[in-house]
Design brief:
The complex is a heterotetramer of chains A (323), B (331), C (81) and D (432). With 323 residues, chain A is of the alpha/beta class. Helix content of chain A is 46%, strand content 11%. Chain A has a 6-stranded parallel β-sheet, with helices on both faces. The model of chain A has no long low-confidence stretch (mean pLDDT 94). Chain D has 3 domains: 77 residues, OB fold (Dihydrolipoamide Acetyltransferase, E2P) (Beta Barrel); 46 residues, Irregular (Dihydrolipoamide Transferase), CATH 4.10.320; 200 residues, Chloramphenicol Acetyltransferase (2-Layer Sandwich). In chain D, 28% of the residues lie in helices and 24% in strands. Chain D has 10 helices and 18 strands. The longest helix of chain D has 22 residues. Chain D starts with a strand and ends in a 6-residue tail after the last helix. Classes of the chains: A alpha/beta (323), B alpha/beta (331), C mainly alpha (81), D alpha+beta (432). Chains in contact: A-B, B-D, C-D. At the A-B interface, β2, α5 and α6 of A face α3, α5 and α6 of B.
């Protein structure tokens, strides 16, 4: 793939997450989607950049704001949308909803709605690889809010102590729901926390997908080659509210406006246009392709079916054998 | 001397160790992880000597990070291993409650059947060793509350030896509760044991006058009580639950249908406890079989105290069980 | 034993078995089992009761003597020692 | 001004007639005061006024006119200074409302009959202990209050209700099955509780004979309706030559005193019990859509009761009894059945029942199976019939035997086997 087409690919990936989520917000207001819906809009560069650095055999553990991660990892948009509709064709059979997207084929381990809860899990997945002598990487995403959890510290320590192949991806969007990082952390330079565990750590511009990808490639290579866990702090921003029912009393419109001027999609699009690598026609074609994909996803979800209530108690315990 | 089955004398502790060593010899995916399981040999010396045989990768000491290492066990299980995670006592497991309840128990269901979690978590439970309140509680019932977990409580040496194999074979998370009072229990272990079915309670003694339902650390007390009752001419049916989730309801109903009188003996507290669950199930499914009120012999509703006489006063005792059963039978 | 005594015993035992029997309306010469809806067990019980009260065993061959009140009275009077 | 209207006293009440006023215009009325009586479908009910005030106007005269709920009956002027209550405003939004609080104990009005009783006995309702659900005053509370008033015992003609006797659930279940009156049984269980043992030891019923007969009729109705509704019966009939059996029995009885004499019924029961060993599918119970075979043979014997009705208590382990024992038990059973002295254990567990209607002149009986049993044997009258013996016609005593079988459990073929086995056994009476 040429450099240009790779950049087009990154742009397309971010755009489809954006349009997918915009449609999701609309469907939420139409009551097609219920429960909590946390939008990733503004942060797309992080998931897209990191996923590009991973191999299919690697594992991903994500948070409850994970539509972008699932899509970037390769989970079919239709099955994600169907999941949010609660249809049995959804990637978790409608058992999980927006916050619990799972996909075994893509080694996508959720969809974890306990802040910090995915971190020990990632350490364990990496431990399994370590004990089995497999050169695989486990990437775990979490927000800066998780840094306040004990599980963050325990897991960072354990991964470093045992030299495990974990890539810690901290998406620092400055707010844990409504609590600004200054109001929850005595040390706001998160890489310093990682350093205290002797874990290599970088701060990365999370609005620049190219920078994200570069940093991720470098870190994943090091992790895969036995360099132990790495920590990346992506400075990013969520453009939308925490969830659908949030009047955003905790941040100013000016602040949001400032960050939106660095929209990761617009940044890359502007750069490509300026360099003559993306024509209006290219962009429109991309929009059209993404629009069609989102339409298809919605249609797939609409046409999906409800799981029979008789299946309610299935999957509390395994049905036959194991993995 | 008969030669039907070879027997050897062994402690409960050794039986657990033998079970773990056996599993690790037979399956490379099995490893043991927990606080002081390696060099120290285990807080209750259960894993003593295993580090030497299996090395530090497979007998893995962890920092005091219950949430991280229990979660790591869950992750490793998701990653294809068969971890045995030892948590020192059930009281400490509360630091890992998030991982056990929010992750291990939920992943299979939440992922629509994609991710089962074949982890085994062992922990010591119970009182009687003057370890005071923060090391002595019986919280089995809390875990048994949660769908997605399997909860077992070996109350005999044979079960200690043979439940682990089934637990490791199980595709889903299994929590094994080992009562601290049982570790030193000595007894004969038939050589030709076999893995224990994790769905079935076991009748330890057949009787007709009163049912004594119990599990784990209370089982020896209940057997002693049943002996005393026998001498008084009262015949007790003793049901060892063994599996606290899923409960073997048919076995519970069977014994009540046989004797029409029920005493539940549980070292946990009464309020909202396992004993309450059993009583409720019997009331739901077999109330017309009852020829007397259901009685429970449980721990006093206090934190377990340190001083020996106070600790013993807080716990179910053989005399309490005998007196309760006797009164039910109307003598 | 007088016929009156025999009659007394016969009816005492009978009303134990069939309390609703009114001795004034019973026909002395009609088949008792038909008249009073006695089954074979009632009938046997009645004879056993009479035997116990009077000390007279009633052998199998004499059962037919008890088909009516009249014959029964005669039998008891004759066989009482 | 406050409107005093026809109140809704129940969900199913929609109108009433005014029976009378207890006040006149100008009277001062207090909140809670009864000021009118209305007649409803359920009888005369006193109506309270819910406000303090002065009766301004009685709008309706007592009379037969049916007034709908809500109709204006009177106007009451509030006392000076007291605010006129506004009609309650509707809540402005559709926000989730907390459920209304239940009235507290003090606010629950006793039911009208209770008030009437209190009035009759001169008991002050406000001073009574309230033991009913939700703190309501019960009849017992009033009676206790009346006793206290009298200073001794109960008021004449009124007996306080007895407290509910403690009984275990199993005892209650057994008692209901067996028609035992819990109040008259002993209580040997813990805490003076009636337990199963007490019920089993109790006479099957301690009700008055009329009640007993009625209760028995109802039980038979239930059981037989159930049987005819649920059990697909099949019927088989045959006649069995009793010549050998009866001759043998006569010889046996000739040696016996009257009190030890054996009736043919005992012989037939014994033979039936033995035959069941050959066809165990007829011996047991159909429970929860499944046949539960019984190892033991407990033969129920249908016994008619002189006052009317029928019981079918069991002779336990009938296949293992000596003929003499069988006769003794049978006689005892019949005697006790007819004097209402059966034990509940005898009532609860027959595995098959035999009915003998021969004494009543019936030639062939077609019995209805008693659930949950799965078969019933009917014995008819012994009649003389011409049977071929060595090619010559000879008159022999013959009995008609019928089998009713539950087709869910057995088919005619197995049923037939029982009858033929029975016939075979009766040809060798000495083996019984």
């Amino acid at each position: 793939m040429s450099e240009t087409s790779h950049l087009h690919d990154l742009l397309w990936q971010m755009l489809r997450i954006r349009r997918f989520e915009e449609r999701s917000a609309q469907l939420y207001q139409e009551e097609k989607i219920r429960g909590f819906l946390h939008l990733y809009i503004g942060e797309e560069a992080v998931a897209v950049g990191v996923m590009g650095a991973l191999e299919p055999e690697d594992a991903v553990v994500a948070t409850y704001r994970e539509h972008g991660h699932a899509l970037a990892r390769g989970v079919a948009p239709g099955s994600v949308m169907a999941e949010m509709y609660g249809k049995v064709e959804g990637c978790s059979r409608g058992r999980g909803g927006s916050m619990h997207l799972f996909d075994a084929d893509n080694r996508f381990y959720g969809g974890n709605a306990i802040v910090g809860g995915g971190l020990p899990l990632a350490v364990g997945l990496a431990l399994a690889d370590h004990l089995s002598g497999r050169r695989r990487v486990t990437a775990v995403f979490f927000g800066e809010g998780a840094v306040a959890e004990g599980e963050f510290h325990e897991s960072m320590n354990l991964a470093a102590l045992w030299d495990l192949p974990v890539l810690f991806c901290c998406e620092n969007n400055l707010y844990a729901m409504g609590t600004a990082i200054e109001r929850s952390e005595s040390q706001t330079h998160l890489t310093l926390k990682a350093a205290s565990f002797e874990i290599p750590a970088w701060e990365v511009d999370g609005m620049d997908v190219v920078a994200v990808e570069e940093a991720a490639v470098k870190a994943v290579e090091s992790v895969r080659s036995g360099g132990g866990p790495h920590f990346l702090e992506f400075r990013t921003y969520r453009f939308r509210a925490h969830s659908m029912f949030d009047p955003e009393l905790y941040r100013s419109k000016e602040e949001v406006g400032e960050w939106m001027s660095r929209d990761p999609i617009e940044l890359l699009r502007g750069r490509l246009s300026a360099e003559g690598l993306l024509s209006e026609d290219d962009w429109e074609a991309m929009e059209e392709k993404v629009g069609a994909e989102v339409d298809d996803a919605v249609e797939f979800a609409e046409e999906g079916s409800w799981e029979p209530v008789g299946d309610l108690s299935r999957f509390v315990y395994s049905e036959v054998g194991g993995q | 001397m008969t030669l039907i089955a070879e027997k050897k004398t062994i402690t409960y502790r050794e039986a657990v160790r033998e079970a773990m060593s056996d599993a690790m010899r037979n399956d490379e995916r099995v490893f043991l992880m927990g606080e002081d399981v390696g060099r120290y040999g285990g807080c209750y010396a259960v894993s003593k000597g295993m580090l030497e045989e299996f090395g530090p990768d497979r007998v893995r000491d962890t920092p005091l990070s219950e949430s991280a290492f229990v979660g790591a066990g869950i992750g490793a299980a998701l990653g294809g291993m068969r971890p045995i995670v030892e948590v020192m006592t059930v009281n400490f497991s509360l630091l890992a409650l998030d991982q056990i309840v929010n992750t291990a128990a939920l992943y299979l269901h939440m992922s629509g059947g994609q991710f089962n979690v074949p982890v085994v978590i062992r922990m010591a439970t119970g009182a009687g060793r003057q370890l005071a309140a923060q090391h002595s509680h019986s919280l089995e019932g809390w875990y048994a509350h949660v769908p997605g977990l399997k909860v077992v409580a070996p109350g005999t040496i044979e079960d200690a030896r043979w439940m682990l194999a089934t637990a490791l074979d199980d595709p889903d998370p299994v929590i094994i509760f080992e009562h601290v009072g049982l570790y030193n229990m000595e007894g004969e272990l038939p050589e030709n044991g076999a893995p224990v079915d994790l769905a079935k309670a076991k009748l330890r003694q057949s009787g007709t006058d009163v049912s004594l339902i119990t599990y784990g650390g209370s089982l020896p007390k209940v057997m002693a009580a049943a002996d005393e009752l026998t001498q008084e001419g009262i015949s007790a049916d003793v049901l060892d639950l063994r599996v606290l989730r899923p409960l073997d309801i048919p076995a519970i109903i069977d014994t009540v249908t046989t004797t029409h009188r029920l005493v539940v003996i549980d070292e946990g507290w009464k309020t909202g406890g396992l004993s309450a669950e059993i009583a409720a199930r019997v009331a739901e499914d077999a109330i017309w079989e009852l020829d007397a009120p259901i009685r429970r012999v449980c721990s006093a509703e206090v934190p377990v105290p340190y001083a020996r006489h106070m600790e013993q006063a807080a716990l179910p005792q053989v005399a309490d069980i005998v007196a309760t059963a006797r009164a039910l039978v109307g003598r | 034993m007088t016929p009156q005594q025999a009659r007394q015993i016969i009816f005492d035992v009978l009303t134990d078995i069939a309390p609703e029997v009114d001795r004034n309306t019973v026909d002395d010469n009609r088949d008792l089992t038909e008249q009073l809806d006695l089954d074979s067990m009632d009938y046997l019980t009645w004879m056993i009761g009479i035997a116990e009260q009077t000390g007279i065993d009633i052998p199998q061959r004499d059962v037919s003597e008890f088909l009516t009140i009249a014959t029964a009275v005669t039998y008891l009077v004759e066989h009482h020692g | 001004m406050i409107d005093f209207v026809v109140p809704s006293l129940g969900a199913d009440m929609d109108r009433a007639t005014l029976v009378g006023w207890l006040v006149e215009p100008g009277d001062v009325v207090k909140k809670g005061q009864i000021i009118a009586e209305v007649e409803t479908e359920k009888g005369v009910i006193e109506v309270e006024c819910w406000h303090d005030g002065v009766v301004e106007e009685l709008v309706v005269e007592p009379g037969p006119e049916k007034l709908p709920v809500g109709a204006l009956l009177a106007r009451i002027r509030p006392l000076e200074g007291a605010p006129t209550p506004e009609p309650e405003a509707q809540p402005p939004t559709q926000a989730l409302k907390a459920p209304p609080l239940r009235p507290t104990a003090r606010e629950v009005a006793p039911a009208p009959p209770i008030r009437q009783l209190a009035h009759r006995l001169g008991v002050d309702l406000t001073r009574l202990e309230r033991t009913g659900p939700g703190g309501v005053i019960t009849r017992d509370d009033v009676l206790r209050g009346a006793s206290a008033l009298a200073g001794q015992g109960s008021p004449a003609g009124i007996v306080p209700a007895r407290g509910r006797k403690k009984a275990s659930p199993r005892a209650r279940w057994l008692a209901s099955q067996l028609g035992v009156d819990l109040d008259s049984t002993s209580a040997s269980g813990p805490e003076d509780m009636v337990v199963a043992k007490d019920i089993e030891a109790a006479p099957a019923t301690t009700l008055e004979p009329e009640d007993k007969v009625a209760a028995m009729r109802r039980a038979i109705a239930r059981s037989m309706s159930h049987s005819k509704r649920e059990i697909p019966h099949y019927y088989l009939a045959t006649h069995i030559d009793l010549d050998k059996s009866l001759s043998w029995l006569e010889a046996v009885n000739a040696e016996r005193s009257i009190s030890r004499r054996i009736l043919p019924a005992a012989l037939l029961l014994k033979a039936t019990a033995l035959a069941l060993r050959e066809v165990p599918e007829l011996n047991g119970h159909w429970i929860d859509e499944e046949f539960h075979r019984s190892e033991a043979v407990h033969i129920g014997v249908a016994i008619s009761i002189r006052e009317g009705g029928l019981v079918a208590p069991a002779i336990h382990n009938a296949d293992q009894l000596e003929l003499g024992e069988m006769m003794e038990l049978l006689r005892d059973l019949v005697t006790r059945a007819r004097s209402w002295r059966l034990r509940s254990s005898e009532m609860s567990d027959p595995t098959i029942t035999v009915t003998n209607l021969g004494d009543r002149g019936v030639e062939t009986a077609f019995p209805v199976i008693i659930p949950p049993q799965v078969a019933m044997v009917g014995l008819g009258k012994v009649v003389d019939a011409i049977v071929p013996v060595k090619g010559s016609p000879v008159a022999h005593p013959v009995i008609h035997v019928t089998l009713a079988g539950d087709h869910r459990v057995t088919d005619g073929h197995r049923g037939g086997l029982l009858l033929s086995t029975l016939e075979g056994l009766l040809q060798e009476p000495e083996s019984l």
